[in-house]
Amino acid sequence: LKNCTVVLPDFADQIQADELEGCKVFIGACGESVFVRNCTNCTFYMCCKQLRTRDCHNCTFYLYSFTEPIIEMSDNMKFACFNGGYEGQAAHMESAGLDPKINKWALVFDFNDEAKTGKNWSLLKPAEVNTTPWFPLGECEVTVPVTGLDEAKAAQAAA
Predict the structure, then answer these.
(1) What's the Cα-to-Cα distance from 10 to each of 2, 42, 85, 127, rounded to whole Å?
(2) What is the C-alpha R_g of the chain?
């Protein structure tokens, strides 16, 4: 897909997003892994148990992840806390086994940066974050609280 908006306001076990360019993607609740491969210049809003990327470039993730997000062979990846929702997302997250209070969105693991320099990814600076929530089906209550790095670290320590 090129220059498209994709909205999946539902629960799924696993999702693959391949070969997207210039797209905006919303994934409501994935109970296992979301695999994002060969994507360029995309923005993702997603809630998942695990995010895995490979061969992605210049992508931004507004993310809820129950586990540490994993990137591989990817560069210029940017991360911020998930900020959006839709009516019914809380029930979908419950079906997916996702606890909105445990969000490790900021604890990125890069397979291609053994020295952990952060050369392939960064957290969005506060001035870069889109603070307007994305409600693709219309305004609703937020299911996932917007958290910062300290809260993500606390979620890791509690696990």
Answers:
(1) 23, 21, 11, 31
(2) 14
DSSP symbols for 37-97: ES-BS-EEEEEEEEEEEES-BS-EEEEEESS--EEES-BSEEEEE--B--TTHHHHHHHTT
The tokens for 120 are 């392939």
Burial class (CB in 10 A: 0-12, 13-18, 19+), 70: middle
Q: Virtual CA dihedral for 49, 148, 91, 5, nearest 10 degrees?
A: -80
**Residue 88, token pair as written in the block:** 């019914």
Q: What's the CA gap between 91 and 158, in Å, rounded?
A: 24
Pairwise CA distance, residues 12 & 73, whole Å: 26
Residues 140 and 28 sit within 8 Å (Cβ to Cβ) = no
Q: What is the pLDDT of residues 140-157, one digit of tens each?
A: 999 999 988 888 888 777
The pLDDT-based confidence of 136 (bands split at 50, 70, 90) is very high
CB contact set of 150 (below 8 Å; sequence gap of 6+): none
